Amino acid sequence: MKKQGKRVAIQGGFGAFHEIAARKYFTESEPQIVPCDTFIDLFDSIASGNADFAVVAIENSVAGSLIPNYALLSRSSVKVTGEVYLRIIQNLIALPGQNLDDISEIHSHPMAILQCHDFLAPLRKRGVKVVESIDTALSAKWIKENGMMGIAALASELAAVIYGLEVIAESVESNKRNFTRFLIVEPRTDKKGGKEATDLNKASICFTLPHNVGSLSQILSVLAYYRINLSKIQSLPVVGKEWEYFFHLDLLFDDISMYKKALSAVQPLIDQLQILGEYKSGQLQNG
Question: Cα(171)–Cα(90) distance, rounded to whole angstroms?
Fold first, then answer.
């Protein structure tokens, strides 16, 4: 039996994909899962000391970026210390003894609904109502606790097991290469430690730019010169400053010294540089 591990906040209830991602990442000990209804609650749990780590979904290969989470990351006193990729398998689950013809409503998180549009389209045409909820697993919990016959949830197989539901239709996601990338975050401290520099090959940063022609292209040219691979770029509006943007970048590098030189080189060109975290990149696998 694994020893009890750190407290890990997740968005959603027990059985959510966030919990599966947490257990995939924290393998040395059994994580103590801290469920949170919303991502705001999740970041608050870190700030209040109710959790040691948090697992935050940041992008999905089908539905795209979770834009609000980029803003939460930049505003919160956390650092990114890792990432994990999870193959998302959505299942239609309901109380035992039913089949697809018995279902009149399907509840789930909006992201899950987007991921299953091909499966849901013909059901909508025959009158099945699709209802957005705050979480996949919490939808399953609600169905169980209220004995909701005729109502199903899009959720994980783990949620079906936890809440005593049956899988009516398995793997109903439209794209079988459906992955979500989760970031591992923890509070910022003055303590030294963490992974050795030789293990670090990825960084997440954000900054603002002067509203000048070619300002972003200058940054990208500098990164290319130092052989830094830009794996993700995401822009967000700066609140209160029309048509000005924050840029969030994920950078991959083979040589951390070249990464440090690149940061020094771009610093005079940008405003409000924030290093969200430096960590080891996750592995994209089918499991």
Answer: 5
Answer yes or no: is 194 within a domain. no
Radius of gyration for the alpha carbons in the chain, expressed in angstroms and rounded: 21
116 and 143 part of one domain = yes
70 lies in the same domain as 182: yes
Residue 284 lies in a domain: no
Alpha-carbon gap, residue 35 to 8, rounded angstroms: 8
Domain boundary (142, 160, 187) is at 187
In terms of Cβ atoms closer than 10 Å to its own Cβ (0-12, 13-18, 19+), residue 179 is middle
CATH code of the domain covering residue 237: 3.30.70.260
Sign of the CA dihedral running 199, 187, 180, 234: negative
Identify whether the C-beta of residue 96 lies closer than 8 Å to the C-beta of residue 141: no
Tens-binned pLDDT, residue by residue, of the chain (287 aa):
566 789 999 999 999 999 999 999 999 889 999 999 999 999 999 999 999 999 999 999 988 899 999 999 998 989 999 999 999 999 999 999 999 999 999 999 999 999 999 999 999 999 999 999 999 999 999 999 999 999 999 999 999 999 999 999 999 999 999 999 999 999 987 554 444 556 899 999 999 987 778 889 999 999 999 999 999 999 988 877 777 788 999 999 999 999 999 999 999 999 889 999 999 999 887 54
The CATH number for 39's domain is 3.40.190.10
- How many domains in the chain? 3
The predicted model scores a pTM of 0.91
- Closest to 73 measured CA to CA, from 183, 233, 229: 183
| Number of Cβ atoms within 10 Å of the Cβ of 170 | 12
Is there a contact between 156 and 17 (Cβ–Cβ < 8 Å)? Answer: yes
* 152 & 221 share domain: no
DSSP line for 93-139: EESTT--GGG--EEEE-HHHHHHTHHHHHHHHHTT-EEEE-S-HHHH
